[in-house]
Structures are given as structure tokens and as C-alpha cells.
User: Fold these one by one.
Assistant:
Number 1:
Amino acid sequence: MNTLLLAITAIALVVLLALVLRPLQEEAKPEQEEDERISPLLRGINYLLSDEPDRALQEMVQVARLRSEAADVYMALGEMFRSKGEIGRAVRIHQNLLARPDLPKSMHLQAHLALAIDFQTGGLLDRALYQYRKALDIQSDHAGALEASLRIREQSSEWLAAEELLSRLEQVRRESYGSHRAYLFSEMARQCCNESDYEGAHGYADQAMALDQSCAPARMVEIELALRDHDFDKAGVGISALREHSREHFPLIIQILLQYDDYYSSEGVNLLHAFWQQGRDAELALAWMEAVGRDRSSAEAQALCAELGFVPNSLRESLRLNAVLGDESDAHARFSRQWRKSAKNYACEQCGVEVVEVRWQCPQCHSWGTLHPKSEESI
């Protein structure tokens, strides 16, 4: 049985227990009436165990009809509709619950959270945030609502609001999220750069660096701002610091250096050569040749390869080199270039998802700074 069916079965069992135990808390119902309610639920659980979720859902609807006053039955029914992808029906159930004047106060929080998840699942993020705020009005330290709101703010690139939620989450969990906050500040810095607010970008980048020296995107913003201001000494210090604290992401700076030819030609080339001699890092050489071949010429990339004396040591390195230097008439070169366009270049250490372009936040598990460059290619 898959995870979804197990989850639905668990919900049904909870409702069954609620139906059986409720007479201990309320005035007992006639035994025949209670049997009418429990029988379809038992049949529903049996259908779930038999991997027949549609028939199970029909029985749950019957339970809801027989016990229309039981909010827990409707909560379970809404969960089942959502799990089947019927978001609209789940929303209506949870909205109707909240509209009931007799809904117990203890159920309001659960109903708002369920409705928020409905909207979030359906992609209606503004409505989801509204419902999470309603839940937080009831219980301000609800970690689940805070974390879900944080994810939505990050997904919408609302970095200031995300940072505020992260602060609240730190207080609730009594944990420090310094590295996470550094990445949020780096995104604010990049956003300021895009809006030509260079003073703001400086401020946010500095805050990120104070929290986490290895925050590569913030360091890259600092380097780019120094190059823009023609402060080459500061740029050189930043480049060296990036190499020291974020070596695996260091090759990403080459693309930026090539945009400032006055620095690249006078100092950048020598600095990159020095780093190459120190470690003969294959990723550095390949990223350098790829950037030169893309922004300048294939001939210059070939000259750089000869100058570095680079020799590939793996299938992935061979494919990348062939994609840059191979002749268009060569079928192997054409294949390598096609492969390079869609090759997964980064993998998340937390969940294993692979992506083509660099991302500072994993698109699957939402962790920050967990995507690392791949060094090998599976066959």
C-alpha cells in the first residue's frame, strides 16, 4: 500500500475512534444509530486496505451524512478529497466548517490550517497565507504555520517578510538559523542590485557575510559591487575569500569577471592562473574555458586549454571539454553540446534532487546551500 493510502487509513481510524469514544464524553446515542455511523466507516477502511480509495470515499461521505454535526468527520473527509486532488471540494468542506456557528473553538485552528493547505496545494498562495495568518492569530507559536508561511514568502521572493517569519520560527524552536538568514540577506542584496540600489545591496551583503562567511551568493554580490566601483583591490580580496570559503562555487565568479574586461585583462587572468597552479582544479579550468568560449570565441578557449595543459580525467570532464572545443562537423561534439544543455550539474545533499542551473535553495526540500556541483556522470 502506498503512503497516501496509509495516511487516509490513519485518518479514517482516527474518525472511527472518535465515533466509538464520543459516547464516553457525551450523552450516549442509541446503539442502533451509532452502528449506522460506524458500519460505513468500517467498510471504508476495508476498501482502503483493498486499495479501492474511490469506494472508500463514498463510504466516508455516507458517514458525514449520518453524523452531520461531527466536525472531525468533515475534517477527515476534506483530507481525503485533497489527497485525491479534488481541491475545490476540500476547500468547500473546510470553508463550510468555519462558517458553522456551532464549530467548537478547538476546531478553528485545525480548520484554518486545513484550508491553508488546500489553497497552497492548489497554488492559491495569497489565500493560503491569509489562512495561515488566521491560524497564527489563534496560536502565534504554531511552528507548522510559520514554516509553511516562510516557504510561501520564499517562493514569492518576498525576502523581508521571509526573514521576519524566520526570526519568529527561531524563537519558537529556540534554534539558530544564521546560515538560512544569510542566504535571505544575499537574495535581498541581489534584488537591490537589480533595482540599482547599490547602497542597500552593500548593506545586505555585509549582513549576510557577518552571519556566514561561506555564503557564496552574498560574496559574489560584494565582488560585483567592487568591480562596478573599480575598487580592484577590494574585488581581489573578495575573490580570494570566495576561493577560500566557497571553493566549489568559486568558478561561478568567472562569468562576472569576463563582464569587466578592464579588471579581467589586467588582474583577473593572473589571479585565475595562480589558483589553477595551486590546485589544478578541473571545475575551475572547465568553467573558465566554457565562459571564454561562450562570451569570446572558441579559438580563445582552445588557446586557454593549451595554456593550462588541461587533460580530462572522467567522462563528465571529457563531455564538457568536447562541448567547448569540438568541431561542429564532429558528431561527438554535437552530442556533447546537446548533452551540456540539459545535463544536471548540481545535486542536493539532503534530498538528492538534481538541477541544471545553480540554485541556492533546493526546489524540492527547500534547504539552503545544499546543492553542490556534480563531479561525475552516471552511464
Number 2:
Amino acid sequence: MSKRRGFDIDFPSTQDGVYTGGGRRTSAPAPASKPEARRGPMAAAISENADALRERAEAERAIREENDRLAHEHVRLKRAGLITDLIAIDAIRTEKLTRDRGTGADPDIAELKASIRAIGLSNPIQVEPVGDGYELVQGFRRLRAYRELFAETGDEAFARIPAGLVATGEALEGLYRRMVDENLVRRDISFAEMAVLAMRYAEDPGTASADVASAVDVLFASAGRQKRSYIRHFAGLVETLGDVLQHPEAISRNLGLDVAKRMSAERGFEARLRKALSEQGERSADYEVAVLQDALKTTQSAPAPRSPSGKNAAAKTTLRCTVPAGTVRCAARDGKVELQMERDFSSIDRHRLEAAVAAFMAALDD
């Protein structure tokens, strides 16, 4: 067997200990450009993975910033009631706030329903998410119109109503103010309705107002001082006669103020007024207003003399009747009937008047 001969290669040493390829050259010329170091597959994979992780982290950071911005914008829009959704009408409660609108007949609801049928709801209601449902903040009549339309038609288009979502947790005072400020721009809201709202606000244990006067100042802060004074007068009127008034919303500002002042200034006026209202039974809004107006015309004096028939000549029945020509106001006393309306009766032919009176008396005796 032959033995492999081994040998050693002795590289020449240099000053920096690196062999340059020959023993004669003591220093290599500087290259024109430094060549890129060659990386192995593992190094390349690690580098590419690091680059991908940096890009992903940057993308996630940008997404988080965008989400934070959108979340803050969502809260801002929600607080402003600008985020709307279609809410099921049976998921909306009306318990948290006392409404200024009653549950009786609303003469304008038919017009509102006709508008919704024709063009939809242009002004969404406002609701506050509560538990598994919603609490109404603004839009009692609009919600009522949708509920009536759904009950009448069964159309699923009226089963859900456009609603602005108010941020949860707003103070009760703020929710009341939202409702009141919306109603102040309505032309048909009456002083009695505003007074009732102030009374209910003062009674609500969740509010800080202990009396009606302070409740008026809180709720109607955007109204003028004189208007707040009127509301307080109406509150006194409703508190005193609320159990015998059937249509307080029909009482005009001047009539309500006159009645309130008369009750305060004249002893016995309240009792007479309560008696006059209680004796009428079920009545229309116009009739009730006529009773109040007639009471103001009656002054406190000695008992009226009896008529020969033994009946009180001061006893009177008042009513209003709507006819094609307008509204007729009638006042009937012992031996006297008065009819008043915006019409010149003197221009009517005498014979036609005579025939009308004969027909009127014949109808009474039927």
C-alpha cells in the first residue's frame, strides 16, 4: 500500500494578516466601488422577513390611528345626533321623559301622516340607546304617526323609523332641554303644554328643580324673561283647574293670563269657574274656551233677581257651532238667545231671517 504524501502550503504573511494572492504586492489598490457582500439563503430570508414585519407593524400602526380617529368622529357625530339608523318602532320607549303632548286626539296628526306617506320622514327622531332598546328624546308626534300608519296599513315600511342616535349617558336635564328647544320652534305648542312640562320636570326625582319656577328657568332658558313669566302663570292655572279642564292646550295666552289674574285677585272666582266647567260634562275645546271667556265677563255682585218663572235669569249656556259659513257662538239665557259670528246679518233679507228664526224655534220644540 502506498502512503499518500502530505505537504503544507505556506502563505506569505502581510501586515494586516490577510493574504492578497501573491507575495510580491505589499498593498492592493483601492477598488472603484465596494462590492456588495454576498448573502446566503438563510440571511436573505431573515432580512426579507424583518422587512415584512416592519411593513406590517407600520400598517397596523396606521390602522390603529385611523380607527382611533373614526371612533372619536363617531362619538362626536353621535353626541350631535347626526348618526341615524332605522329603528323598530316597538323597540322605542317613551318613559324616561315626560312629554308635553297628551295621548288624546291630535288634530294635526293626519296632516303629518299624509306627508310621511308622500315624501317620507325628512327629520329623524332622536333616541338614546338603553339596554336592549331605545328611549325617545325628540319626536313624539313623528313616532306616533309611524305607529298609527303601521297599525292602519300593516306596511313594513312603517315598522322602522329613521332615528338619530344620541350618546348614552347624557344628563337628564340635557335630554329635557333637547326636547324643549325643539318644541319652542313649533308654532302650535301652547303655553299650557309648556307649563305641564315644567310641572312634570319639577316632580321628576331625577332633576334638581324643586319647584315649577326653577323648572321653567332651567327648561326654557333660551326663551325670553316675559315668556317664562307667562309659562309660570299658566302653570298656576293648570295646577288649580287641571282636574276640570279638558282642553287646556286650547287656552290662548291672553285668556289664560286673564283667568289666572282673576283667580288671584277675586275671592270666589275660582269656585264659580270650577262649578261652571264641572256642570258642562264632555265638551269641545271651543266650548270650554267660551265658558272661560263668559266667566271673565261675569262680575261678582248681589244675587240676580228671580224671573217670574222662578228660574235664575243669570243662568246661561254657551256653545260654539261650526257651519259652512264659519263658527257661530251661541249664548242662551232665560228668555234670551244670542248668536254671534263674523257676518253682517243686517244685509240678509227680512223674510229669510224670519223663516230661519221660525225653523230654529220649530227645531227646538221637536
Number 3:
Amino acid sequence: MPNRWKPNVTVAAVVERDGRFLLVEEETTDGLKLNNPAGHLDPGESPTTACAREVLEETAFDFEPTHLIGVYLNRFTKTRTGDDITYLRFAFAGSLGTHHAWRTLDEGIVRTVWMTAEEIRACPERHRSPLLLQCLADYLAGQRYPVSLVHTDISVTQTSG
């Protein structure tokens, strides 16, 4: 099969503190949008390692994934290009660690924001993905699974040679 379909694998963090959730406001081709700290799985990474890295890059906070909230499939058509993209998202809950205020946030991230669930639900037009609300709903419903459900074989992280 020369053109085998493959989804883009992403990771996202649902981070709650004092009833508020950590989001990022980011520049997109459709303007400023809100999202969970999230991003693509890079070669040689486990999903949990990728999630910790993305949270650090996008928010300057250390993050340790402690639970899998869910695995989500979403199809998206880019507004400007018409590209048809499917994302496979692994969403994690976890514990937030040290804030490294000296760190520059990832390219495109304007700022971090803390919002209540009600505030997030009130602005769906500002969400980068419908998965923001779905992950939030599942988290609030108490959906938690062991991170061990996501197994990464040693062959992924081994360097050859």
C-alpha cells in the first residue's frame, strides 16, 4: 500500500488546580485559540514522556502524568488549506511541579491561562479542538486509568548502533 493512512499521534494534559484548569492560548491560522497543553509524539518518546515534555515546553511547568484519561480520535479539516487530518490523542491527568519562569514558551504559545470548567464551556468557539471539552468532561466524570495501559516497548527508546 503506497499511501497508507496514518493518524497524527498527539498527547494532552488535563491539569487542575483549585478548581481551575491550565490551558494555553496559542496562535493558529484561525486566530488565537485555547487548548490543553498538548503536542505531537516525537520519535523515540513514550506518550507519557511526550506529555511531560509538551507541558514543560508550552507552560514552563514540570508535569508528571499519573493517569490516562482516555484515547481520542478526531478528524479535522484545516480552514485555509482544506487538509484532512486525523488525530489520535492520548490525554493524561497528573501532578504539576515546579514552574520555571525563566523558560520561553514554545513557538506560537502566547500565554498560559487558568480557567474554570464553566469558563471553558462558555467559549467553544475559542477552542482549538473539540477534544478540549471531551477530555475535560471525561476528567470531571472521574475517568482515570493506570498509565501502564499505554505500553511503550524498549525498541522505541533504544538508540541503534
Number 4:
Amino acid sequence: MMRRKVMLLAPVFLAACATGQGNKTAPQASDTVRVESWLRAAKLENVPFTQTWPNGSTGGGVLTYHAGYLHLNYTVPHSMDLEASGTHAVFKDSQTGSETRMGLAHNPLGVLMGNPITLSGPVTVTDIQKPPGILQISLARTENPSQGLVTLIFRDAVRVLDLYEIRILDERQRTLFIRLGGV
């Protein structure tokens, strides 16, 4: 009987380990609070960025972000625009004249669109890495982590966070890189 109970609970324990829901250490909880606070207070305006798509092609422009809102205004390879807020995003390509609307409920980017943003409940912190001078935190949707992962990489100097890279891993295991600070 005891063996059966252990076998029934095994998937729950494995899932908790895989999603980082096991016992968090005080430093991990502290880092999560720091990143959540940074995201809630962030007011990035026209920050230069470069982007590498999963196929290796690159582009760039300027990024604006605050809780619940993201705007990527591309100038390279040509004029394009991605504007996301709340639960939807609109992508406009001036070269083709196309406009694509998409829901963010099943898109990894949606984890950054909360207002106020929370790194608990609907968002799960799946991993925290701290090489010297860096804080890297990975986020997924709690209800369906297989939909993708967003990893934020900060410079961490004297406990001051400076976001410099966003990695978005989609459900097909393709990674898109956005590096802040230069086109």
C-alpha cells in the first residue's frame, strides 16, 4: 500500500523538481523578488536592440517596455513593428504590407505582459543561475510550461540589475535572442 502511494506521488515530486516548485532557498526567493520589482518598475524607452531569429538572421531597432507593454520598432533588415500589450500583439511588416494579430495566452512572450507583473501564480520561475556579475532567471506559464520559456539575463553589479538579453524558447524548441544596447 505504501509503495503504491509513493508511486502515485512520484510524478508530482518530479514535476515540482522540473519546474522549480520544490523548496526555494532564501537567495532564490530574494532574486525572484528583485527581478519582479525590476520588471514592475521598468521604464525602458527607445533602447537599441539587436535580434537573432532562430534561423540565424539578424535585425534590430529600438525597444520600449514597461509592465504590460512591449514595442519593438525594427529598422533592420527593414521597417517592421511589433506592439504587445496585455493578452495580444500586432506585428506589422511595411515591406509586405502585412499585419498579423496574435494572442499571447499561449506565447512565451505573454509571461512579460502582466500588469502588475508577478513571478508566481500564472508564471513559474523554472531556473535561476548566478555566474559572477550575472543574474539569469527563466520563466514559464505555470499551467503549461511546454508552451515556451523566457529567460532574462541581467548584469548584477552591486545589487543593481541591468537587463541586457532576453531569450525566448518557443514550443518547438527554437530560440530567439534579443540583446539590448546596440544595433
